[in-house]
Amino acid sequence: PCKIFVNGEPLPIEATTRITVNTYNGGGQVNLTWSPVVGAAAYRIYRSADGGKSYELVSTRLTKNFNGKIPYFNDSVANGSYTYAVRAYDPDLSKDTRGNAVMATATINVLATPAVTATKLSADHVYLTWNVITGAAAYKVYRSADGGKSYKLVATRLTKNFLGTPPYFNDTALSGGSYTYAVRAYDSAFLKSTRSAAGTATATINVLATPTVTATATENGVNLTWNAVDGAASYHIYRSADGGQAFERVSWLLAENFGSSTPYFNDTAVSGGSYIYGVRASNYPNSNVHTPDCSDAGMATVTV
User: Which run of H or E residues covers position 297?
Assistant: First the structure.
């Protein structure tokens, strides 16, 4: 563009007639566009974070780089309200010939990051909860089985379905291992640009090994022994006198009582016949038969 002179004086460049602001909230992105100005060689973009009280220069954009297209500028900012000003300049970038500044305001409302809690309820069940995110229309739940290297979408939960209660998700049919969960909040557009950062939590499913059981007939009944199971807090012993059709629990024992010794149980309440014994290891140091993290039962048969 050439500088225009009138009576030997440079003619000030006109102000741009329009400035448009588009926000992409989730990533904190602001896109500015404005109408081209005849005679302008460059545009300077200023930003204010205090309602226009003070401005900082954030970019200088040369007209030639737009190749005749609508001039634009992309800005990355945090949450808040921002006022932008654009001025057109001649090739000298002189104050004497710059255009008047045209302003526009953009408000960035990035959805907050969910605070996620993952609770193991059983050997195949993880319960997720997270806080309500203001402005969220939905949440997407992702699961990783490789320490967060890759994630799989496992659920989309609509905010309206929780009726004001804390959002949640039940993940079941899991196998042993460590699982990392990520939850993102989305607005009604479900766009990447408007989603929140991911809140994460990890739950570990510890499936106990199956005990290897040995049953030996003695003068006083039956002596059971089995290997110590890593992670076990208690052992539960079951007996069947009808070939395995029905079992009754005959005892439970704290793993800590055996120390480094081999766990055992002496069953004296038997008479002649064939018996099948089962031993389960549990993560819990109590007598609850239905502990959620029991191992499979190790079995042994003996005839007295």
Answer: none
The partner residues of 24 in beta bridges, in order of sequence, read 29
The C-alpha atoms of residue 266 and residue 94 are separated, in whole angstroms, by 99
Maximum Cα–Cα distance for the chain, whole Å?
Answer: 126
Cβ neighbours for 172, distance < 8 A, ≥ 6 positions apart: 124, 125, 126
Tokens at 105, concatenated: 């305001």
pLDDT digits (tens, 9 = 90+) for 84-100: 988 888 877 777 667 77
Instruction: Kindly tell me if the per-residue pLDDT of 217 is higher than 80.
Output: yes
Contact 232, 281 (CB under 8 A): yes
For residues 102 and 29, give the distance between their C-alpha atoms in angstroms, rounded to a whole number. 20
Burial of 225 (0-12, 13-18, 19+ CB in 10 A): middle
Residue 13 burial (CB count, 10 A) = 23
Q: List the strands of the sheet with 168-172, edge to edge.
A: 116-122, 125-130, 168-172
pTM for this one? 0.55
How far is it, in rounded angstroms, from Cα 252 to Cα 242? Answer: 21
Contacts of 151 (CB under 8 A, 6+ apart): 142, 143, 144, 180, 182
For residues 66 and 140, give the distance between their C-alpha atoms in angstroms, rounded to a whole number: 39
User: Residue 43: which of 57, 65, 19, 62 has the closest Cα?
Assistant: 62
* Ordered strands of the 199-205 beta sheet: 152-158, 138-144, 177-186, 199-205
Q: State both tokens at 288.
A: 């609850």
Q: What is the rounded distance in angstroms from the CA atom of residue 38 to the CA atom of residue 87?
A: 13
Residue-wise pLDDT for 48-80, tens only, equals 988 889 999 999 999 999 988 899 999 888 777
